[in-house]
Amino acid sequence: MHVYALALEKGGVGKTCLSVNLAAAFSRLNLRVLLIDLDAQGHASQWVGCTTEDLRPEDSIIGVLNGRSLADCARETDEGVALVPAHSAMAGLPVQLAGLPNSGIFALHDVIEQIRRPVPHYDIIVLDLAPARGPVLATALAAATRCIAPVQSEDLVLRALKALFDSVAQAKRINPKLRGVSIIRNRYAPRSAGDMVYDQTLRAFYGAYLMQTTIPIRASLRDSAGLQQSVFRYSGSDAVEVRNMFLDLVEELISRDGVV
Ligand SMILES: Nc1ncnc2c1ncn2[C@@H]1O[C@H](COP(=O)(O)OP(=O)(O)OP(=O)(O)O)[C@@H](O)[C@H]1O
Ligand SMILES: [Mg+2]
Fold first, then answer.
1. Architecture of the domain spanning 2-257
2. I need a surface site. Which of 75, 76, 108, 172 has the fewest CB within 10 A?
3. Does 186 sit in the ligand 1 pocket, CB within 6 Å?
4. CA distances from 124 to 3, 129, 216, 221 (A)
């Protein structure tokens, strides 16, 4: 079972976009996928068609931290991906975690271990994180097997990457299964002068961590969100091209991490 944490402190870089579409891509390969929305904004939940109005806090990760099993909280979506949805009460998660043993650092790790045995319920777990550092990120990294960071051509992103690498280095001390960070260049336009300069910097500092597959700006990634569909269900004109990019990303991840 691979656990992918989509994280970066910088907002709006594509964490949720990649969480949803990577989860959908894995599920198209007949893998059993669980998407856990760890962001109180609930964008990933909405993107896969789960409107949060009728949800109770205990339907979210809050319920899991209070003793419900992940499998119990997971609901099916039209994407073929199971979802533990977000609830706005998750804004209080850092406080809730602080009240748990070891400041809740192993809370997610432990509930994922529960569904790993005797036979794993899922092949892939995708964690969509809020644009923040702090206890929720630490808890996610303590449970993850890989951290995936989407980046765009911006200075602030480089600073956020440095902070993320620090968080991952700390998490590795308590989580030997955490392989490290993979960086995905999102909204990538290598012919633009700005992106080329930025790309050189990124290669110089983080070359070993860059995924080969890059994601350009595409209308289907913007528009599918409003229709609450991944690109695998959305039928916009560039959807087929974008689906193939996500399948390439999945192939690259499988070649790094092994089949599940
Ligand atoms: N490659 C892309 N092409 C076009 N639109 C994109 C692309 N990547 C992301 N978007 C759009 O950009 C917006 C921000 O992306 P997204 O919500 O995934 O970022 P995020 O990192 O999850 O943000 P936050 O930090 O607030 O959680 C969304 O509306 C999304 O649809
Ligand atoms: Mg997001």
1. 3-Layer(aba) Sandwich (3.40)
2. 76
3. yes
4. 6, 16, 25, 22
What residues have their beta carbon closer than 5 A to ion ligand 2?
15-16, 43
Domain ranges of the chain: 2-257
> For residue 129, which atom of ligand 1 is closest to its CA?
27
pLDDT in tens, 65-83: 999 999 999 999 999 999 9
Pull the structure tokens for residue 160.
Answer: 């956020």
Confidence (pLDDT) at 52: 64
- The phi, psi pair for 181, rounded to 5°, reads -110, 140
* Diameter over CA atoms, the chain: 53
| 187 within ligand 1 shell (Cβ under 6 A) | yes
Does the Cβ of 28 fall within 6 Å of ligand 1?
no
Q: What is the pTM of this model?
A: 0.97
Tens of pLDDT, residues 106-158? 999 999 999 888 788 999 999 999 999 999 999 999 999 999 999 998 878 88
